[in-house]
Amino acid sequence: MARIQFFGAAQTVTGSCHLLQFGKKRIILDAGQFQGPWELEKLNYEGFGFDPSKIHAMILSHGHLDHCGRIPLLQKRGFSGKIYCTPPTIDISLLILMDAAHVQKEEFLWKRRRLTRAGIDVKEPLFDLEDVYFSMELFEKGIPYGKRVEIVPDIHVTFHLNEAGHVLGSSQIVVEYRNKKGKRRKLLFTGDLGDGGRPLVYDPEPPERDVDVLVMESTYGDRDHKSYESSVEELEEAIISTVRRKGTVLIPTFALERAQEILFHIGRMKREGKLSKRVPVFLNSPLAINLTRIFLKHCDYCNHESFKHPTKKMISPFKFPGLYFTETAEESKAIHNIPGPKIILAGSGMMTGGRIKHHLKHNLWKENTTVIIVGFQAQGTLGRRLVDGAKEVKIFGEQISVRAKIYTINGFSAHADRTNLINYAKRARPKKIFVVHGEPNSSNALIKTLKRALPRTEVIYPKFKEKFVI
């Protein structure tokens, strides 16, 4: 009998991890970290809810931390099966996990210095660099889109990957298996589904038709995005108006995809004369810098039109006058001494850590600063408080007034909006839908719309650890 059980991204956004059981064989889809307030993050320390040593294989949709971030922990606790994903996702996962190990170590050392004296126990990091290297040995050679792989030969379970259009190398996962009666069935997991029309990655492939089970994300299930074109115009307007005031533009960016997409548009502004070539642009994130190089390595998975020169030669869309890659801490600190106008892209995207917090501390209280928020901000994060209009925030224990102008431009989201999610489900025509990867308001709104659009389809909102026959 085939079953599915939800061990992450169930009635929340992060921690993607879904267990498929076919008799005695077990496969997981993703193994991501829980991110956000401590109530969620502590789940990373509470075990998976299943025995990792009994997992036969894992299929990874893409390299974001909330989808791959517990792989080293999985390996530490006994998982020795193969991990399947696209070639770019292998390289991206290595960088993401190495960065996560570094950040955890730094946070642990800082908390131990600060909290141990107060008698508060500090939890050890989830994993270290050695764990990352061991886990990378489990990755199978990259699987190209469309290639059918037999993952459990003795019970005829196969899978293949399709373009998800979310980030470089992201995948929809199609698993084919047989039910208790021996009838062939098909499960489709969207992973994180893109919105389409982006300059660097291809549009998501249409869903497989007539699937039996659809496991779909719902990050923006309660709203539609602004048009991409109007979002680009708003980005340009925010940058140009701040530059005219000789101010500082702060763009908190996710290191994967969003940083590269914003760089693409700033570079285009400079090439078209909308922005002076003398205005310095700082990509102040070692992780984003290294991921940008991954785009160039795997440009065959990118939208080729953005990498073509009029002579049809392949070029980098990320090279333009005034761009500086600031990799060291000393270079990062030196940015504060450079007068405006200037543009700074730094992580983390939700402003929960990283170099962006230092820039916010130095600039958020200044009226000629502009903060451009171009990504999803989870509840409980600093980014969400700014989006919600906070007049004062605490950064590194210090109260900072918010006098900067805050732009929230949702049209850059790498997630499909409500209309695209509904159209996707209608094309798939599933018999059963499990709605995951969304905050309750978003997921519940999508569920109501799905029930109206697909009255013959069973729509389920699974709880954490809930199990179903498929």
Structure described in brief:
With 470 residues, the protein is of the alpha/beta class. Helices cover 30% and strands 20% of the residues.
What gross morphology would you assign? globular
Q: List segments where confidence is low: pLDDT < 50 over at least 5 consecutive residues.
A: none
Beta strand %: 15-25%
Q: Write down the domain tally.
A: 2
Going by CATH, the architecture of the largest domain would be: 4-Layer Sandwich
Largest sheet: 7 strands, mixed
Question: What is the radius of gyration computed over CA atoms, rounded to a whole number of angstroms?
Answer: 22 Å
Predict the CATH topology of the largest domain: Metallo-beta-lactamase, Chain A
**CATH superfamily label of the largest domain:** Ribonuclease Z/Hydroxyacylglutathione hydrolase-like
Share of helical residues: 25-40%
Q: Indicate the structural class.
A: alpha/beta
Task: Give a topology summary.
Blueprint: E1 2-6, E2 18-22, E3 25-29, H1 38-41, E4 57-59, H2 65-68, H3 71-76, E5 82-84, H4 87-115, H5 129-136, E6 149-152, E7 157-163, E8 171-178, E9 184-189, E10 213-217, H6 228-244, E11 248-252, H7 258-271, E12 281-284, H8 286-297, E13 323-325, H9 329-334, E14 342-346, H10 356-363, E15 369-373, H11 382-387, E16 392-395, E17 398-401, E18 405-408, H12 418-428, E19 432-436, H13 440-453, E20 458-460, E21 467-469
Parallel strand pairs: 3-4, 4-5, 9-10, 10-19, 11-14, 11-15, 12-13, 12-14, 15-18, 19-20
Antiparallel strand pairs: 1-2, 1-21, 2-3, 6-7, 7-8, 8-9, 16-17
Helix pairs in contact: 4-5, 4-8, 12-13
